[in-house]
Design goal:
The protein has 300 residues and is an alpha/beta fold. The chain has two domains: 74 residues, no CATH class; 203 residues, no CATH class. The chain is 47% helix and 18% strand. The chain has a seven-stranded mixed sheet with strand order 1-9-8-2-5-3-4, with helices on both faces. The chain has a two-stranded antiparallel ribbon with strand order 6-7. β8 and β9 form a beta hairpin. It starts with a helix and ends in a 13-residue tail after the last helix.
Length: 300
């Protein structure tokens, strides 16, 4: 339970302290612990098979530097003020949610594991007077999970466990802005949506497609760009369904229709929006490869 004392203390330290800590932490993760180095290298070579050796080394080094900063940003989040959050995680462009809510429409914002997606979850709570929810996976330590969730909810966002997210959304009588990051490879293959990602057929979680195809929901992709250490800009862009070959996807349509208990027409729409999501994540990875979570076992 030592974290009960350390996390509040670290949360009060200035960002200059986090910056000083980031380089030794990067060295520890990359060179000493060698945290998932083999996974990172495998994923990089799958996604960018034609890079020269020096490019792989450059991005691998930059990735571990960003990962160290991300860990420190997460720790700093326990004590970050609203002003600090807005200064380090700046919205650029239009906030679309008040317009959606005025038209009686819910919104789902989907993001990849790039940039600081947790700061995005904390930031959306103040974007309108309506409810803002983020779906998350609870930590195994219930006490730590409760502590982290309460800290994340300080600025108005509600964090709801993925295990009952479908039921919570269905039962809500209020307009919602729902956020989730879902570009990991699902453990349950039968419910995965198979899409094209970096030239490979791979599974994505079905949640983004499921919520996006509910009635009266608009779908957005959260674009997060790291501008310098511990600083990001973010925006929301409308996500439009991608073209789908109905004949090639016939078996997947049947499977998803059966597993998710939806019509075949909706199953097709779920595939379409998930492909659009995968393509948007791919584009962000190409634009800023060092700030995507390469240490996930993305390809199975």
């Amino acid at each position: 339970m030592i974290w009960k004392f350390l996390l509040p203390i670290f949360g009060r330290f200035p960002f200059s302290f986090a910056a000083a800590m980031s380089h030794p932490l990067r060295f520890l993760l990359h060179r000493i612990v060698r945290y998932r180095v083999s996974v990172v290298r495998k994923n990089l070579r799958i996604c960018f098979p034609n890079w020269p050796i020096e490019k792989y080394r450059q991005i691998e080094h930059a990735y571990y530097q960003w990962l160290a900063e991300l860990i420190l940003e997460t720790l700093k989040s326990t004590g970050i003020t609203k002003e600090e959050l807005h200064n380090h995680f700046r919205l650029v462009g239009e906030n679309p949610f008040p317009t959606d809510f005025s038209a009686g429409r819910n919104a789902v914002g989907i993001v990849g594991h790039h940039g600081n997606w947790e700061w995005l979850g904390m930031s959306i709570g103040g974007l309108s007077n309506h409810e803002h929810w983020v779906i998350y996976k609870p930590l195994s330590d219930q006490t730590l999970d409760q502590y982290m969730r309460q800290n994340r909810e300080r600025f108005g966002t509600k964090f709801i466990p993925f295990s009952n997210a479908y039921q919570r959304v269905a039962a809500s009588k209020n307009l919602i802005m729902l956020g989730l990051a879902a570009d990991q490879h699902p453990h349950r293959a039968e419910s995965a949506v198979e899409v094209n990602f970096f030239g490979h057929r791979t599974g994505f979680f079905s949640g983004p497609g499921y919520f996006s195809t509910l009635e009266n929901w608009n779908t957005y992709f959260g674009v997060i760009r790291r501008t310098k250490p511990f600083h990001y800009e973010w925006s929301m862009k409308m996500l439009k369904p991608a073209p789908v070959d109905t004949e090639k996807e016939a078996q997947q349509i049947e499977r998803l229709s059966s597993v998710m208990k939806v019509s075949k027409e909706r199953a097709l729409k779920i595939i379409s929006i998930t492909q659009a999501y995968a393509s948007a994540v791919e584009q962000r990875v190409i634009e800023q490869p060092e700030t995507w979570l390469w240490s996930h076992r993305r390809f199975r």
